[in-house]
Amino acid sequence: MFEISKYKDSNVKLSIRLPESIDNTLRKIAETEDMSFNNVLVSCVKYALDNMDLSKYETEEKK
Asked: What are phi and psi of 41, to 5 degrees?
């Protein structure tokens, strides 16, 4: 199940472009959950990665 978590280890700065509708949705979630936009975004990305088959992206050493 998807849960928004607080992340304190987020130390890589990125600049990204999002569709306005996604930005609006993430900001509304952040406001409603009293969380930072960054925590909501990181939680979404982590959830997506945790639920993908990443085996084809692993290096040969890890297989």
From this structure: -65, -45
Q: Are the C-beta atoms of 54 and 25 separated by less than 8 Å?
A: no
Residue 60 within any structural domain of the chain: no
Which domain covers residue 44, as residue numbers? 20-53
Domain count within the chain: 1
pTM of the prediction? 0.79
6: CB partners within 8 A, 6+ apart: 35, 39
Task: For residue 9, tell me if it sits in a domain.
Answer: no
Dihedral pair phi/psi, residue 51, rounded to 5° = -110, 15
pLDDT, tens only, 6-32: 887 878 899 999 999 999 999 999 999
* Alpha carbons 63 and 51: distance in angstroms, whole number: 19
